[in-house]
Amino acid sequence: MNVRAHIDAVHAQIRRRDPGEAEFHQAVTEVLSSLAPALERHPEYVDTGIVERLCEPERQLTFRVPWVDDDGAVRVSRGFRIEFSSALGPYKGGLRFHPSVNLGIVKFLGFEQIFKNALTGMAIGGGKGGADFAPRGRSDGEVMRFCQSFMTELHRHVGEQTDVPAGDIGVGAREIGYLFGQYKRITNRFEAGVLTGKPVAWCGSPARAEATGYGTVYFAQEMLATRGHGFDGRRVVVSGCGNVAIHAIEKSHALGGRVVACSDSSGYVVDEDGIDVELLKEVKEVRRARVAAYAQSKPTARFSARGTVYGLPCDIALPCATQNELDREDAVALVKNGVLAVAEGANMPCTPEAVRLFHEAGVLFGPGKAANAGGVATSALEMQQNAAREQWSFEQTESRLADIMRTVHSQCRETAEDYGGTPDDYVLGANIAGFLRVADAMSAQGVV
Ligand code: GLU
Predict the structure, then answer these.
(1) Distance from the CA of 91 to the center of ligand 1, in angstroms?
(2) Active site residue 128
(3) Phi, psi (5° rounding) for residue 104?
(4) DSSP strand E in 126-206: where?
(5) Mean pLDDT, rounded, of the chain
(6) pLDDT, mean of residues 328-347
(7) What CATH code would you report for 57-189?
(8) pLDDT at 18 over 90
(9) What is the pTM for the complete model shown?
(10) Atom of ligand 1 at shortest distance to CA of 197?
């Protein structure tokens, strides 16, 4: 069968069997539209149904998560874990607790995770999970009871050699702690490597909290260096203000950039003095308040409930909020203002149309599965430390992270060129490089 027809047939099958999973369809389309040159060179992957198998999760779990709120009312949330691919190692990927979570969202995230994890070069498969539970506005007690109920089901499916969840939106150190405590209680095992993103004080990895944001900035720095640029003296905008955004801002500043804006779902703040990371951390992580509270605490800052950070003139944009947050209109504004580079700290934050506009305008564009791979790569370093019962220094871990990001970057460029694109085509390079590593392992392991 010809390669294009094969890819079209896989697409058609997904649309038919998985109706209504818009984000999953989008993520699959994005990857499949890069794969023709790889499949032409490796017809054996067509013959053994590699693409078709990759698009079908090895296992998908949905489960009831009942919990009792502070008023004594019973609530029923829906939990998910998609164990997508174990070709390269135990399923690995975060948990997202957010009201928008549904099967299509978790499948898109799990699918992306396969290729992202492959790009890191580490021994980790791809998975993702979460629940439609909203931690915002919930007391610590409610969050704890929710996490305990969630793990009461999830513990049957995870394990350090099987499936290793971590954080994502709505799941940070607090939630990981409650989840770990319940896993330990049910299994009677202190199995440190069953979850990553643990606090450094008990079996977490130094630099894990920083890794996704720092890694995204390292990736952007590598892209910029190919054109003789850097962060020094550059204006940067960041969307989001969670863990990824905070550390992307911190590292941008460390490299001499000035981050003038960040946001949350209620609006954005502009601070021409440069965002004060300590204040932002205090607002988001201690007070758990909205970003507007930053502007109330800082005279040089202003809050806007309308528009996006992308309307502001900038040299570098780091979307670190959520999927499809940066659309056509934002991309037009960024290109008009002469943006040099866009690196995705979040998963799939740029719509396909926005990505196309960046490509046409020659803007350096780092897709999330490459640019934000530093988080999961450092999770794999956490697993290594847990297996060896040791803990590395911050410097040692960060230097491994920086090496990994450099390698991911060069791998994207080399693969893109090798498969008929320009070295700047990071989308093509990331998709093919990730795919080939998984496909090689799948071929060797037979039809499973
Ligand atoms: N949720 C993160 C991601 O999107 C991290 C996953 C992990 O550390 O397992 O890659």
Answers:
(1) 11
(2) yes
(3) -65, -40
(4) 126-131, 163-166
(5) 97
(6) 98
(7) 3.40.50.10860
(8) yes
(9) 0.98
(10) 8
